Amino acid sequence: MNKTTPDLLALQRLYHWERTSPDRVTLSQPMGGGVVKDFTWAQVADQSRRMAAYLQAQGWEPGSRVAILSKNCAWWLMSDLAIWMAGYVSVPLYPTLAADTVRHILTHSEAKACFVGKLDGWVGMAPGIPEGLPCISYPLSPPEAVAAYPGWDALCASTPPMAGQPVRPEDDLATLIYTSGTTGKPKGVMHTFGNFAWAISAGIRRIPMTQDDRMLSYLPLAHVVERVLVEHGWLFTGKHLFFAESLDTFTSDVQRARPTIFFSVPRLWVKFQHGVHHKLPAPKLKLLLSLPLIGGIIRRKVLGALGLDQCRIAAGGAAPMPVELLAWYRRLGLPINEGYGMTENLAVSHLTIPGQNQEGSVGPAYDGVQVRIASPSGEIQMRSPALMLGYYKEPTQTRDAMTDDGWLRTGDKGHIDDHGNLHVTGRVKDLFKTSKGKYVAPAPIEDHLVMHDSVEACVVTGANLGQPLGIVMLSPEEAGCVSDAASREALEASLTAHLARVNARLDPHEQLQCLVVVTTAWTVDNDVITPTFKVKRNRIEDLYAAHYERWEASGQRIIWHTA
Question: Domains of the chain, with CATH numbers?
Answer without folding.
Answer: 47-203+221-235 (3.40.50.980), 261-309+311-427 (3.40.50.12780), 432-561 (3.30.300.30)
